[in-house]
Specification:
4-stranded mixed β-sheet, FAD/NAD(P)-binding domain, 335 residues
């Protein structure tokens, strides 16, 4: 049995930063994650992808951000249950929560912070009949190591930020990059759209709009894709990799059975302290929902900071929390 002050479900960036904020007020944290390593999506989906909106870092790779967060929280000695899914929550006689994982590990804590990102997720796959035959044989839904595509011919499909960003990034690594999108306009950031257009004009990206990849061919390994244009018919294009980036399909999994108020696969919270309708359970990061919500790591860090202050008051109702800037003495204390 594992006992702690704040039990954090999700060891992604928001969950990790929660450890830092909790450590400043001398609260212990234990983190649970279904993935076998910390970092959440940053580690599992795009560890080599650059991130541009973290304060103090004009650019930082996702995996490096995870390393920096782990370095930041190391003094507070968090503990982890990795490779296990939070399954069942019960209330104990003294008002705490008892959480049991799918492997039977029992955790006890007065406060639970759900920082599960998108929850359980899987990539959205295009409706190509034989796509399963080429998975891990030229078809990838997630880019973990860009060096895999060095000097290769690749086809990316999609019109959002991920498709645009990876097309830009891989244009300096791959031999050929073809971006296929079923519409003539894109959903991603305007700056990224402009950059793709520039690279297309320079010949570094082959841009095919109003078209879809409808077929895959190869003898045990992907060798070509069939692209169907809305008005110009179909053509076959030689390629070594096909990467459909249509986003992730989020599923809350067991969290959806815990009696929480949920809207469109996200947990409703009170923006006063990011508490849920269940007293003692909070939700921060991409997994929560409120008016004006922005799914940014930066916003999740803010939510974690506010949530910890509320959690402290719940755990120590008779103690006065004295907020002090970390630049004053490196810690916050209570009286």
């Amino acid at each position: 049995m594992i006992e702690t002050d704040i039990l954090i479900i999700g060891a992604g960036p928001c969950g990790l930063f929660t450890v830092f904020e909790a450590g400043l007020v001398k609260l212990k944290c234990h983190l649970i994650d279904a993935l076998p390593q910390v970092g959440g999506q940053l580690s599992e989906i795009y560890p080599k992808k650059p991130i541009y909106d973290i304060p103090g870092y004009p650019e930082i790779l996702a995996g490096d951000l995870v390393d920096r967060l782990m370095e930041q929280i190391a003094p507070f000695k968090p503990t982890f249950t990795l490779g296990e899914r939070a399954e069942i929550i019960e209330k104990t006689a003294d008002g705490k929560f008892k959480l049991t994982t799918n492997r039977g590990t029992v955790h006890i804590a007065p406060v639970i912070a759900i920082a599960g990102g998108l929850g359980c997720f899987e990539p959205r796959k295009p409706p190509i009949s034989n796509i399963f035959d080429f998975e891990d044989k030229g078809v990838e839904y997630i880019i973990k190591d860009p060096e895999v595509y060095k000097d290769k011919k690749i086809v990316i499909a999609g019109g959002g930020d991920s498709a645009l960003d990876w097309s830009i990034f891989l244009s300096d690594i791959a031999k050929e990059v073809t971006l296929v999108h079923r519409r003539s306009s894109f959903r991603g950031a305007l700056d990224s759209v402009d950059k793709v257009m520039e690279l297309s004009e320079e010949g570094k990206i082959s841009l095919i709009t109003e078209a879809e990849v409808v077929g895959l061919s190869g003898n045990g390994q992907l060798e070509s894709v069939t692209i169907k244009h809305k008005t110009q018919g179909s053509k076959e294009l030689e390629t070594e990799h096909f990467i459909p980036l249509f986003g992730l399909s989020p599923k809350l999994g067991p969290i959806g059975e815990w009696g929480l108020n949920i809207t469109k696969n996200a947990i409703d919270v009170n923006t006063l302290d990011y508490s849920t309708n269940v007293d003692g359970i909070y939700a921060i990061g991409d997994i929560n929902n409120y008016e004006g919500k922005l799914k940014l790591i930066l916003c999740g860090f803010h939510e974690a900071t506010i949530m910890v202050q509320s959690a402290f008051k719940r755990i120590y109702p008779d103690k006065k929390l004295s907020f002090k800037y970390t630049t004053v003495n490196g810690v916050q204390g209570f009286e």
